Amino acid sequence: MGVSAGSDQKTIVDIFTEEPYRSELLERYRTWCRENDKPFAEGEISFSNRTHNMTQFLMQVQEDCYRDMTDHLRKIGVRVPIAGTNWLVNAANTRTQLVSDFADNHVYWYAWSWNENCRSFDNRPMVAQHDSILDHPCNLPVDGSTFLRVRMGRPLA
């Protein structure tokens, strides 16, 4: 899940743009606008149009989702620290992680192949490559929040 655009992976927002969820999200958006004294257009609204107000609203939806998920897990006895997601893609998404116990980000070195009968990896050092996880600028730690960056250097056999 994530407040983002430009990926083949479905985000919470992508899922909510399908019925019956779209209608519920639209009503939540209009309620949020009224409660926060924000203008909104009557009729069709695009959730992919990332205006400041839309981004703020979608961040609230995502934070509420993580709070509800964490509350449910705590009620059924989960006692370990809980992260909202490991798919941190931008500042808005990273900000929503502050409601979780910690933030986690997985950035992979894609110089490996993991197939059913053949597993291999490219043993070139990352420091010599222009596109490696070492220079991945996105999703830096947020002050006051525990942040983990986990990477997979090569798949385990």
Summarize the structure.
With 157 residues, the protein is α+β, with helices and mostly antiparallel strands. The chain contains 4 helices and 4 strands.
Short descriptors:
two-stranded parallel ribbon, alpha+beta, disordered N terminus, two-stranded antiparallel sheet, 4 helices, 157 residues
Distance between the termini: 29 Å
Give the neighbour order of strands across the main sheet. Answer: 1-4
* Total beta strand runs: 4
One letter per element, helices H and strands E, the order comes to: HHHHEEEE
Structural class: alpha+beta
Beta-strand percentage range:
5-15%
Please state the overall shape, judged from the principal axes of the Cα atoms: extended
Unreliable stretches covering 5 or more consecutive residues:
1-8, 152-157
